[in-house]
Amino acid sequence: MNAVEKTPLAERMRPKSLEAYIGQLHLLGKDKPLRLLIEQGHMPSLILWGPPGIGKTTLARILARSTKLPFVQLSAISAGVKDLRAAIDLAKKAGKILVFIDEIHRFNKAQQDALLGSVEQGTITLIGATTENPSFEVIPALLSRAQVYVLEPLSKDDLLVVVNNALEQDVLLKEKNIQLTEYEALLHYSGGDVRRLLNLLELASASNEKTIEINNELVERLVQYQASRYDKSGEQHYDIISAFIKSIRGSDPNAAVYWLARMIAGGEDPKFIARRLLILAAEDIGLANPNALLLANTCFDAVNKIGWPESRIILSQATIYLATSPKSNAAYMAINDAQKLVKQTGDLPVPLPIRNAPTKLMKELDYGKEYKYAHDYEGNFVEQEFLPDKIKGKKLYEPGDNKREAQIKQQMTEWWKGKY
Description:
- This protein is of the alpha/beta class.
- It folds into 4 domains: 23-150, P-loop containing nucleotide triphosphate hydrolases (Rossmann fold), CATH 3.40.50; 156-227, Helicase, Ruva Protein, domain 3; 235-323, Up-down Bundle (Zinc Finger, Delta Prime, domain 3); 351-415, post-AAA+ oligomerization domain-like, CATH 1.10.3710.
- 52% of the residues lie in helices and 8% in strands.
- It has helices at residues 3-6, 9-12, 25-28, 33-40, 56-67, 81-94, 109-121, 134-137, 140-143, 156-169, 184-190, 194-204, 216-227, 235-249, 253-265, 270-285, 291-305, 311-323, 330-345, 360-364, 403-415, and strands spanning 46-49, 71-75, 97-102, 124-130, 147-150, 177-180, 211-214.
- The strands form 2 sheets. A 5-stranded parallel β-sheet has the order 2-3-4-1-5, sandwiched between helices. Strands 6-7 form a two-stranded parallel ribbon.
- Helix 6 links the parallel strand 2 and strand 3 (97-102).
- The longest helix has 16 residues, at 270-285.
- It is globular.
């Protein structure tokens, strides 16, 4: 087996230039922020935040080439203080270097503090990649000195371009007669992760047959076979957290605790689990049980104070509480619909009655005129319109079908006759 055959397809197909890079047009399209930085030759420290396998490392390498600076790549999983010191020493000698840290959220506070001085002085330009919200995982001092760019999941069309490029351009695959007759399973089991997508494509293409047909049945068979061979790292990390969340959403405390135990056995970061519980409490339980968010937040705080193994008990309690709580995604759907409406209608003017009127001129322009102060009315309520005229009467919150929100709906019906 030669060197090319030993190199995984995902690595062989890694784009080397911006022209070959797929996706993220909101950052890399004409006149978009990262494109402008590259064209201007100015590269500040930045954090790339997005789901796994969408090209954060690749983009970092492309950005590094545009700076022509000495480039050091570190993985927060394996790099220690010694590696950081070596990078800092190199920066001092070279005058300036670019350091790319993959999975920067796994660096502890002390490691991030060690970088701070060099980033402040400008001897290190930092590019960090993370799948986790930087607000939680990157220390404020470092975060304030870096621009955060959010990378979006690749679309179906983007993923198909990746597959077709591999079949047409890869030095090994293009020598085979591969017929892609169905692609749905490839895209589904990739989960939008380009690395996983190309790994599946490579597995499906690993045959000495004269003609290789890739279809849904073949891919599903390969995935089932691989599932028994996955270890606790990499792809399974995301599969198990998915199973954990869906078990809680599905109100199955037994399955939820099982998947929690699997994550504990795999050495998962307890803060990662607690954060997911916090999100789920708002997204999937919401107003059906408002206390769920309070308990999940208390769990997150407690886990930050208590380490393994005791924090497993706290996580178990929160998991079972959330799994057995009534469910509602009404608040989640309401903000989704509201954001969609804002995108469709733009910056609509605030109605005059509810505008702020701190100056005499504003009062003369009728700012705040005819505003009805709710506390002046019986029951502390009076019907008035708070939405812009163009969308007045629009209903964005639809109470869920549960005991708590049934009470909310009854109250809203009494207040807003005709709307609820």
